[in-house]
Amino acid sequence: MPLACNALQKSKSAMAIISSASTKLTWILAPLLVLATATIRVHGQPPSTSGFISLDCGNRNTTPYTDSSIRGIQHQSDVGFVEGGLTHQIAAVYMAGAPYESQKTLRSFPNGSRNCYTLPSTPGKKLVRALFTYGDYDGLNRTMDGSPFLFGLHIGANFWEAVNLTSWDPSSTIWKEVLTVAPGGSVSVCLINFGTGTPFVSALELRPLQDSMYPFVNSSVSISYFRRIRFGQATDFITRYPLDPYDRFWEGWSFSYNTYPWMTLNTSSPVRRLPGDNTFQVPEGILQQASTLDTNYSFFEINVAVGPNLDAKNLQLLPIFHFAEINISNQNRRFDIYSDNDLLFPDFSPSRFQADSMHENGQFLHNPTATFLLNKTRSSRLPPLINAFEVYSLVRMDNLTTDADDVNYMKEVKKHYNLARINWNGDPCSPREYSWEGLTCDYSKRNQNPRIVAVDLSTSGLKGGLVISFMNMASLENLDLSHNNLTGAIPDYQIKSLKVLDLSYNQLDGPIPDSILQRSQAGLLDLRLEGNPICSKVKDTYCSNKKKKTSTVLIAVIVPVVLVSLLVVMGILWKLYWKGKSGDDEDYAMYEEETPLHIDIRRFTYAELKLITNNFQSIIGKGGFGIVYHGTLENGDEVAVKVLMETSIAESTDFLPEVQ
Ligand SMILES: *[C@@H]1O[C@H](CO)[C@@H](O)[C@H](O)[C@H]1NC(C)=O
Ligand SMILES: *[C@@H]1O[C@H](CO)[C@@H](O)[C@H](O)[C@H]1NC(C)=O
Ligand SMILES: *[C@@H]1O[C@H](CO)[C@@H](O)[C@H](O)[C@H]1NC(C)=O
Ligand SMILES: *[C@@H]1O[C@H](CO)[C@@H](O)[C@H](O)[C@H]1NC(C)=O
Ligand SMILES: *[C@@H]1O[C@H](CO)[C@@H](O)[C@H](O)[C@H]1NC(C)=O
Ligand SMILES: *[C@@H]1O[C@H](CO)[C@@H](O)[C@H](O)[C@H]1NC(C)=O
Ligand SMILES: *[C@@H]1O[C@H](CO)[C@@H](O)[C@H](O)[C@H]1NC(C)=O
Questions:
Q1: Which pLDDT score is estimated for 502?
Q2: Which positions are annotated as binding ATP (predicted)?
Q3: Which residue minimizes the CA distance to atom 3 of ligand 4?
């Protein structure tokens, strides 16, 4: 049996799984300190950990700590980096085997379809890693119960990878890594509930990379870790910080699975990079070791998809091979490198004691078997050699995050009103299917970040003053804060793009600022203030509905009477185009944008209206002019019946526009 790839297995049950690969046990159990100590002796100071973030998810103790098995890296609780979720510990039986302290606790997310962590960061290239140790934390034996256990990860607003724990040993640790460009002051990592198991995470790590590294990673292309392997005689199962100052995880190669007559080479002589070559910065300690074959052999194959739940079928892979000739004899060594059957790099010869990294700049390959072949050329005396390789899969960063200013203003709003909406999590507009409830976003401008154009926070229990953040949102056109408990005066701001400002049914008082009044009077702003104390002093169209404070029962009785006595029925019917599938807000919003509302204007008698609305039984809303009833026409069309309450024709001139 192979050693599980991408997995740390240290517990007793893991040992059982890999018992046939007995040599692996020494790797697994070897202390990670061996190489670390060596490096520190050579370089003196350990590399800087500035900018490192290491979250121990689900750890309720907020005192930072260092893990004795990872020297020099501070870990901290995830409190404050995520909202929601539940904290758990892995089962006692797996505690002793946990590879890192951070794997003993985790945070699970039974609620909400997307839950996001926000990691503060400077802009630029970053490595982001998530680690998962199920450890039967819920006592449900969930990875072994035979059902699928699969959830998703997003990096920012884009799909990163699925975490597949189906039939997974509960003691194992799996990790996912992505190299990405942080767009601004933070990076968000989201867990997506597919409905096949509660998402959870044990640790989240962010490491800054230099911008010269991995040049094919840019704002529209990220790469997800598939394998990163070192050859030779590695003393530890995972090589990471401080040997690698960027704390990449380098797995030792599982020789037993690849049954070639492997030979190990190592050197203590320096292996240099060409001056100015900062692309991969493979640690010298890794390049000082290599694997090759007995000289009678001429080729070896590397299958990088070996291990449970690793599948390259639908991936686009990008391999990077790292070589350095560290054999002291001066015999020539030349080989061809194939991906599947395609010749990638012909007649390659590694340089002596110098790092050579072979990659096709930014070219992703389709290689469903994830197999690479290194084959000696005819002229070569020595068989191929290899020191390390990395294989990544493509992560498209097509979905742009919401305009950064809009995001900040919405976060201010959320904080100011203490809004604990489960769905208000991660990016407000992206990806579309996870956009925040109550927001309407404009995605129409290609290659531009989505903007927030409408915010509906009506009936949301808002208390306190009207927060200024809304008015700073440069693209906001429609703001609905009606039916809340907003108090105080309306602050005086230069509103920018706002066309509809609905503040009706709040406790707002004080004079209406000129900036708003002027726009309203010029017809640039549809201002609605009815149901506020402010309207006890002003009589204007924006307060026109002040009588609506009377109870709905009373209105339902009075209105028909008024209408009958006037013998004027101002019933305007319009069709409500219910979406066939309900709950598809996005499609409905698009419909509204693209298709002008179709209005049928017909005259109805009061008796007809009574019939249509089943005697005004079902109220579906309350508009600026009165109550809206649900009804059904003779042909079965569903309609809303909006009833004008005012008896004065003069006051009703705004009725038709209101309906429209
Ligand atoms: C977990 O499930 C597996 C497979 O069904 C079973 O073999 C094992 O005994 C279970 N373990 C526990 C602790 O229930
Ligand atoms: C981008 O968003 C769309 C719509 O929400 C989604 O279907 C698509 O999968 C996303 N693309 C990526 C790369 O995540
Ligand atoms: C390799 O060749 C040597 C002689 O050059 C021979 O002694 C040895 O048995 C060969 N090994 C294999 C595995 O063929
Ligand atoms: C998840 O892993 C299981 C078990 O290896 C496999 O059968 C299944 O196809 C995988 N699912 C996905 C979506 O990769
Ligand atoms: C990112 O890199 C890809 C290929 O590596 C390239 O096609 C794309 O134009 C780049 N995008 C940006 C924004 O630089
Ligand atoms: C390796 O290269 C030789 C020619 O040098 C060729 O004959 C042989 O078929 C190649 N082996 C494989 C596995 O492709
Ligand atoms: C406003 O607050 C009062 C008490 O302060 C409460 O009775 C009322 O229900 C609140 N209204 C809304 C719409 O939240």
A1: 95
A2: 642
A3: 166
